[in-house]
Amino acid sequence: MMSPRAVCLGLLVGAGLGLASYPSTFLFRNTLLVGNHLPLAVLFVLVVLAAGVNPVLRLLRPRSVLTAPELLLFYIVAAVTAGMGESGFWRYLPSYMAAPRYYATDENGFSKFLLPHLQPRLMPGSGPEDPAVQGFFEGLSAGQTVPWAAWI
After folding, report:
1. Is residue 42 a contact partner of residue 83, using CB atoms and an 8 Å limit?
2. CA-to-CA distance for 25 and 32, rounded, in angstroms?
3. How far apart, in whole angstroms, are the C-alpha atoms of residue 126 and residue 133?
4. pLDDT at residue number 67
5. What pLDDT sits at residue 83?
6. How far is it, in rounded angstroms, from Cα 104 to Cα 81?
7. Residues 6, 3, 18: CA angle, nearest 5 degrees
8. Closest CA to 41 of 19, 64, 66, 59
9. Are 6 and 74 in contact (CB under 8 A)?
């Protein structure tokens, strides 16, 4: 049986780690919290729950101890949820937004077949030569500032 408290705890921890992953990875340049084969931050919380919280609960409220299946379910839900925030979203979203316009050529047909089906407000710039798009893939010139308006 799926435990609602394990799912809720997993979603809560996963969402928190997902939110913390962006500043941790991109602002502080730390190692990935979750984006590895073994999501370290989720594993840390699992160890804290199993070795720290459960013994205290066993003494104070024995009926509230998280069971092994609940801990496993918590781990799965937290790892998947946090992974979406770190590996599946922040790492790839900017390039997904800019790529259709940058790689649109007459030869590949992106301009004719792909771009008409995409929301223009979800993509920076107006074409492959646009400074926001070109600067993202090729880098900015010395002294050039990031064209934030195109990305917002």
Report:
1. no
2. 6
3. 8
4. 95
5. 80
6. 33
7. 30
8. 19
9. yes
DSSP 120: G
- Eight-class DSSP state of 144: P
Residue 84: the pLDDT is 78
Instruction: Please measure the distance between the N-terminal and C-terminal CA atoms of the chain and give it in whole angstroms.
Output: 44
Quick one: average pLDDT of 50-57?
97
CA 123 → CA 22, 27, 97, 151, distances in Å? Answer: 21, 23, 5, 7
DSSP 152: -
DSSP state of 126: S
State the pTM of this model. Answer: 0.62
Given this model, what pLDDT does residue 128 score? 83
How far, CA to CA in Å, does 135 sit from each of 20, 27, 88, 100, 105?
A: 27, 20, 23, 14, 18
pLDDT at 87: 65
Buried b (16+ CB within 10 A) or exposed e, 25-57: beeeeeebbbbeeebebbeebbeebeeeebeee
> For residue 95, how many C-alpha atoms fall within 13 Å in the half-sphere facing its CB?
7
CB of 6 closer than 8 Å to CB of 70: yes
